[in-house]
Amino acid sequence: MLAVMATVLSFWVAALLPASAAVLPDPPAQTAASPAASPAQTIGDTSVEGADERIARRIEGIFAAVPALQNVSVSVRQGVVTLQGKVPTPEDIDRAEQIASRIVGVVTVENRIERSLSVEDSVQSLGGFSDKVANFVKMLPLIAAALVVALIIALIGYVLASSTWLWRRLAPNTFLAELIASAIRFVFVIGGIVIALQMIGAGGLLGAVLGGAGIVGIALGFAMRDTIENYVASIMLSVRQPFRANDWVVIDQYEGRVIRLTSRATVLMTLDGNHLRIPNSMVFKAVILNYTRNPQRRFEFELGIDADADPTTARHLGVEALENLDFVLKDPPPSARLEQVGDSNIIIKFLGWVDQDKTDWYKARSKAIPAVKNTLEAAGFGLPEPIYRLRFDPNMPLPLRNVTDAAVPAEAKRPAAAVKIEESTERIAPDAVIAEMVEKERKEAPEARKDLLDSRRPVE
């Protein structure tokens, strides 16, 4: 019973609501700056008589003026528009719905339009394509003119790039001259294409192409990072000139004489006569030791004397022996230093300098070691050797006893026979075999013209 009374009461309140709304004062209008204002469109609780017919006639009149929408039927009920029929293209389906939804009083649109697959509609849809073909034919003279302009600009770039004498004069080497010429050709060709597209009004296409090319360029840059790094290192090395041809260098752990510097690698000839190619990216970041830049080079070696011997006297005797050698330089003078005191010997390091232009470093060191050794032995200095104790039975210790002269064989106590050693006639001049092989390689190899080393430019 209470539910029935509540229903009747709500009905009478709804019936009297318009009258009471007319009596109540209007609410204050919200200002434009009020955040409570909402532009959302609301749907009335009642419909105006004849509104559906007027909406249907209006939409049908608009569709009648559009050739692609003439076959679309329109029905309206309570502001809900229903569209049915067939159109030539999918774009016409969306177009019809947009037109119907813009009519005042339309609540929503039920789009039931389908695309027509008939031959007539297909021919009609091709009408726009034929118009585009006609416009393209009309633009052919302009396209031809734009193409001629692009070719002229590109031709100017190729003519400028072909002036190799000018770029070789400006650039420090041939590699950079070719790089400048290629860059000029590229800039003029791209400039001609840009101007031609602007002439025919295809600037938007150019922006899309450049955007896609930028993305592709970034991807290729990551993929070819090592190649690009090696190319840039080649440019930097050709400008810096860190070494000359035939220099004896050590690049990280690789040693040899420089044959040439190319756009990809530095070619060395090792001391055993083999070719060694090192990527320029490694050479640019490597620690380079150049033995040829300074002709004076120091050699050193170590000798040990008895622990109870006088190291000062041994040092002076060794230095005098080095001074008596003709190939050892007097300036800087040879020297000796006490390196280490061990359990049974004293280690002395001897140092001497040679001129690499006149003396081979390895040969000089090989002759200096026996010269100092013989001098020390002649003065009574013993050169001790390591002493080892051998145990054959781990379960039975060996008896300890003093090693006396009686335990030493008689043959060992005899002094060594004096042997007269004549002065060696071995040449100590630098070995020029590898250097001559490098010079022959530089002159006869077909890659000689690609060498980036320039003797006319200063070395870094």
Structure, described:
The chain is an alpha+beta fold and 460 residues long. It is built from 13 helices and 11 strands. Helix 5 crosses helix 6 (174-199) and helix 10 (311-323) crosses helix 11 (361-378). The radius of gyration is 50 Å and the shape is elongated.
Assembly classification: single chain
Low-confidence segments, given as residue ranges, are: 1-39, 402-408, 410-422
Count of extended strands: 11
Element pattern in H and E = HHEEHEHHHHHEEEEHEEHEEHHH
Please state the structural category. alpha+beta
Mean pLDDT: 78
Beta content: 15-25%
Rg: 50 Å
The largest β sheet comes out as: 5 strands, antiparallel
| Helical segment count | 13
Helix content: 40-55%
Cα distance, first to last residue?
Answer: 109 Å
Shape: elongated
Short account of what is shown:
The protein is α+β, with helices and mostly antiparallel strands and 460 residues long. The protein contains 13 helices and eleven strands. A hairpin with a 2-residue loop joins strand 1 and strand 2.
